[in-house]
């Protein structure tokens, strides 16, 4: 069984491993058909030490990466409803189901949370094991590569839910990468009347206009564009998907008084917030973390199945497992504007599908 294993900073190796064996009760073994690579994976690739740092600490050694997986059930453990041969998308959170947060349904806040690819072996492999409850069937209308993008789509679904959009809202999305372009599409579907995408790269602005944006702006002209569009009021909701503190500061600034700024990037760094003006403007700063398997993820899958959210234009690269470093991680680092969603197909791409 071949898998892409993290051994340390920028040390990802495609290796032969022993077969996974039969899944434990409640779990399934999947043949992985597609697995996306995202910004979070890049952060882990650049910074993590599998045996030392928290995101990977659960493994105590090399770890198979990948948390945006879709596969076919090849074997089921006891007490599993899924059938062999069923295609599923994997939500990815391994939560305890018993702690304070799990009992509230806030699974991403689980006190003992791990995820596939972070703390537990993930989907950049020919096969993976996963709890059946986080493996959601999808219809034949979707290709496995689209199903793999359910995970980032559910990030957008949750962020839009957390934004409590009102019909007719003006929404700005900072960052026109995969997450930003998904948030723009979902916000439009959930009642936003005007969607502005703020993004420095011209090709991504053009794609944003094709998919969901009424207007696009560069970070330099966004202040003027938003002022013109809203009569100086500002956006009702600003989603920050870019991930650096400077962008977060701008996002709060572009939010109207009484409006909401939603953070969904993983950036590190910290934010200096002028508290007096923040108080006087009664803005809300809301964080949105990943997704839940029972609410956000099924909604994401149905948005993809219905074609209301289109992820096909976001998939820029389809590569094999052996190319995961050269054409995946290193390509994303070398030339970020040239790639949006990179999909790894461990079994090879099926031509014409
Ligand atoms: Zn991701
Ligand atoms: Zn828990």
UniProtKB/TrEMBL annotation:
* Cofactor dependency: Zn(2+)
Q: Identify which top EC class this enzyme belongs to.
A: oxidoreductase
The parts of the chain that form a coiled coil are: none
- Could you list this entry's UniProt keywords, alphabetically sorted: Metal-binding, Oxidoreductase, Zinc
Record-annotated Enoyl reductase (ER) domain positions: 8-344
Per the UniProt entry, the Enzyme Commission number(s) are 1.1.1.-, 1.1.1.303, 1.1.1.4
Report a single Gene Ontology molecular function.
(R,R)-butanediol dehydrogenase activity
Q: Which family does it belong to?
A: Belongs to the zinc-containing alcohol dehydrogenase family.
Q: What is this protein called?
A: (R,R)-butanediol dehydrogenase/meso-butanediol dehydrogenase/diacetyl reductase
> Which organism encodes this protein?
Actinopolymorpha pittospori
């Amino acid at each position: 069984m071949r898998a892409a294993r993290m051994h340390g900073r920028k040390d990802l190796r495609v290796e032969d491993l022993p077969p996974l064996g039969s899944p434990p009760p409640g779990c399934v073994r999947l043949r992985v058909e597609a697995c996306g690579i995202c910004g979070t994976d890049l952060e882990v690739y650049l910074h993590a030490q599998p045996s030392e740092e928290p995101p990977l600490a659960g493994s105590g050694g090399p770890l198979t990466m990948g948390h945006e997986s879709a596969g076919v059930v090849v074997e089921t453990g006891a007490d599993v409803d899924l059938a062999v041969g069923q295609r599923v998308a994997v939500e990815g959170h391994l939560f305890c189901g018993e702690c304070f947060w799990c009992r509230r349904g806030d699974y991403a806040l689980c006190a003992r949370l791990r995820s596939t690819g972070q703390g537990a072996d993930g989907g950049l492999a020919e096969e993976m094991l996963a709890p059946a409850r986080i493996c959601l069937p999808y219809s034949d209308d979707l290709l496995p590569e689209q199903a793999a993008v359910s995970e980032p789509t559910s990030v957008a679904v949750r962020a839009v839910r957390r934004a409590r959009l009102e019909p007719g809202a003006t929404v700005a999305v900072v960052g026109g990468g995969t997450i930003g372009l998904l948030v723009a599409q979902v916000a439009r579907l959930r009642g936003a009347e005007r969607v502005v995408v703020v993004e420095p790269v011209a090709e991504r602005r053009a794609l944003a206009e094709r998919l969901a944006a009424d207007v696009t702006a560069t970070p330099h002209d966004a202040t003027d564009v938003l002022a013109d569009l809203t009569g100086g009021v500002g956006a009702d909701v600003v989603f920050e998907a870019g991930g650096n503190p400077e962008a977060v500061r701008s996002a709060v600034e572009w939010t109207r008084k009484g409006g909401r700024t939603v953070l969904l990037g993983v950036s590190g760094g910290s934010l200096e917030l002028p508290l007096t003006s923040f108080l006087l403007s009664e803005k809300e700063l809301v964080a949105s973390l990943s997704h839940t398997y029972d609410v956000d993820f099924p909604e994401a899958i149905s948005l993809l199945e219905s074609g209301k959210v289109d992820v096909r234009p976001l998939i820029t690269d389809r590569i094999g497992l052996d190319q995961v470093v050269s054409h995946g991680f290193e390509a994303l680092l070398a030339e970020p504007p040239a790639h949006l969603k990179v999909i790894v197909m461990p079994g090879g791409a099926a031509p014409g599908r």
